[in-house]
Structures are given as structure tokens and as C-alpha cells.
Amino acid sequence: MTQSHQTTMSASRATAPTASTAATPFPAVVVPRGPGLGLAAAFAAALFGAGAYSAVGWSIDRQASWAAVAVGLLVGLAAGKAGGRGPLPPAAAAALTLGALYLGQLLFIALVIADVNATGLIEVVVDQGLGGLAGIRQKSAEVTDHAFLVIGAAVAFGAAKKAAG
């Protein structure tokens, strides 16, 4: 009995994996990239960023430069990773970030008006309209409001170029 046990043990040691029987790694995953996909990803990130920017501003009762930088990073990374190399993803990221931050500022104004008047956000947007909210923003805009737009766009442009590789 002892001999058969030793034979089984030595047989299992003798069959060590060779290069041909070793486990092969999984093949690399190919992620589709292209300007259209980059635009779609950047647009989705810009919409999300606009909402987040206005929510952050409303929750801390002011706009924050770090939030503008975060929106720029979000949109730029989405455009660069999905769009790949080329001149379109960084330019689109910068333009979409400008739009996202501007829309976020308008939503911030609407949230403040809704809070002060104890009404709903939809009611304020319907009553004022985007033109009315833009007029309020224009009358109350400070240098920092415009600076945040420029800072966010610059960050988005750089992030898209860096993320594209």
C-alpha cells in the first residue's frame, strides 16, 4: 500500500505544466473609439455635469471653482477616452463644458428662485423660461462666473488630449 501511494505522488509531481499546457492570458479587450462615440460620451457627461454643478452650487449656496474643474475633467475624460486622438474630441470637450457650466449656472439660479419662493423647480423654469434665467444671470454675473466657464473649458481641453493618449 505504501508503494502505490508513493507512485501516485511521484506521478503527480512528474506532470508539471509545460509552456504549451500553461494557462494562457485572456485576449486584450478592444474598446471601440471614434469621434462620434467621443461626442456622445462627452454630451452625456456634460448633461450630468450641468446637473451636478448646479446641485453642488445650491447645496453650498455659491458656485465653486473646484466644481467647474470637476465638470471639465469629467467631460474631457469622456471625450478623450471614447473619442481617441484627433482635434475633434478636445475641441468638443471644451465647447460642451462651456455649455454644461452655463446650463449649470442657469439651473443654479432656478434652484435659488425655487427655494426663495417655495415653489418647484419645473414651475420656475416654465415661468421664467431659459431666456428669463439667462437675463437674470446676465444682470447678476460677476467676473468669477465667466472665469469658471473658461477654467472648466481649459481643463476639459487638456483632459481630453491627455486621455486620448
Written description of the protein model:
By secondary structure, the chain is an all-alpha fold. Helix 2 runs parallel beside helix 4, helix 3 runs antiparallel to helix 4 and helix 4 packs antiparallel against helix 6. The longest helix has 30 residues. The termini are far apart. 33% of the residues are buried.
* Backbone structural class: mainly alpha
> Rg, please?
27 Å
Number of helices: 6
| Overall pLDDT | 86
Helix content: over 70%
Poorly predicted segments: none
One letter per element, helices H and strands E, the order comes to: HHHHHH
The main β sheet shows up as: none
Portion in strands: under 5%
Shape field: elongated
Instruction: Determine the N-to-C terminus distance.
Output: 64 Å
Quick overview of this protein structure:
This protein is mainly alpha-helical. It has six helices and no strands.
Features:
single chain, 165 residues, mainly alpha, 79% helix, 0% strand
SSE layout and pairing:
Blueprint: H1 2-14, H2 35-60, H3 65-83, H4 88-117, H5 121-140, H6 143-164
